[in-house]
Backbone:
C-alpha cells in the first residue's frame, strides 16, 4: 500500500513537470544564436579583465616582496 502511494506521487510529479514544460516558450534558432554570441563575448571580456588584474596584482606583489627583502 505504501509503495503505491509513493508511485502515484512520483507519477503526479512527472505529470506536472510535463504540463509545465508544455507552457514554456522555447527560443528560436536566431534568438538562441544571439544569446550564445552575447555569452561568449562577455566571457572573453571578463577573462581578459581577470587576466589583466591578476597580472597587475602579481607585479605589485613582486615589488612588495622585492622591497621587503
Residues:
Amino acid at each position: 500500500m505504501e509503495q503505491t502511494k509513493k508511485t502515484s506521487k512520483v507519477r503526479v510529479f512527472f505529470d506536472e513537470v510535463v504540463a509545465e514544460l508544455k507552457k514554456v516558450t522555447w527560443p528560436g534558432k536566431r534568438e538562441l544564436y544571439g544569446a550564445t554570441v552575447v555569452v561568449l563575448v562577455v566571457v572573453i571580456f571578463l577573462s581578459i579583465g581577470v587576466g589583466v588584474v591578476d597580472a597587475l596584482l602579481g607585479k605589485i606583489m613582486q615589488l612588495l616582496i622585492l622591497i621587503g627583502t
About this structure: The first helix runs from residue 2 to 23.
